[in-house]
Amino acid sequence: MINVSIVLYHPDWEQVTALTKTLLLSQFVAKVYWVDNSPVGTQQLPLQSERIEYIYNNRNLGYGAAHNIAIRQSVYDNVPFHLVINPDIILDVNELDRMYYFISTNPQVGSLMPKVTYPNGEMQYLCKLLPTPLDVFGRRFLPVAWTKKRNFRYQMQASGYERVMNVPYLSGCFMLLRTEAVLRARLFDERFFMYPEDMDLTRRIHRDYLTVYFPYATIIHNHEKASYKSLKMLWIHMVNMCRYFNKWGWFRDPERTLFNQTAANEYL
Prior knowledge:
Number of helices: 9
Helix content: 25-40%
Radius of gyration: 18 Å
Largest sheet: 9 strands, mixed
CATH architecture: Alpha-Beta Complex
Shape: globular
Distance between the termini: 35 Å
CATH topology: Spore Coat Polysaccharide Biosynthesis Protein SpsA, Chain A
C-alpha cells in the first residue's frame, strides 16, 4: 500500500482535487495527506473522503519538513511505500499502478521517478548527476552557449531516457519512496527550506538502494520554474544551494565523484 503527501501553499484547489481524485482511484493508495503550509488554512475541504487527511501547519515549514510530517505517519503505520508528489502533476491511475508493481517486486529499489513531460509532450530532463557549483550557478547566470555541453551531461541526456537507470539525483516533483529506505536515510533534511532537498535525499538513499528512473510510466508536470520568474524564489534557491554545498563540499565531494563516475560509465 502507498500513502501520498501533497504539500500545499496558497493551493489551486481545483488542481489539487483533480490530482487527489486520480490517486484515490488506485487500489494501492491507502491515504492522501494534504499538508498545508499556507498562512491561512481552509475551513471547508473541497473533497471529502476518509482516505484524505488535511494537516494545517499554521506557517510555512518548507517543502521537505512538511512532507516529513506525512512520511513519519507512514513509518508509524508501517505503510511500505510513500509517494511525494507536487500538486501540479497530472497522471493516469494505470501509470501509478505500473510504478507500484515495479517497485514492490524489486526490493533493491528505494526510490522511483517515472518519465516526466511538459503538457505539450516535451521531455523534462530530470535525471541528473550530483551537481558541482558550476553546474548550479553556471546554468543560472552564464550564457546558455557557455554551459550547453556541460548541462547536456549533467542532465544525462546522452542516455536517451528510454531505459531503466540508477540515477544519483531524481526530481522531488514525484518520488515514489520505499518507506524503509527513506527512514534509513533519515527523511528529508529540514535545514533545506526548498529546492535541494530532493537531491540531498536521493543521494542518501542511493548509498544503500537503487534510485531508479522508470521510463515505462509517464506523468505530466506543469513545471512553473518559480525561481526563474521571481527574485525572491531565486534568492531562496541560491541560499539553499549554498547550504547544500556547505554540507557536502563545494569542490571536494568524494561521494559525488564516485556516484557521478558510476552513472556516467554506465549510461553516458
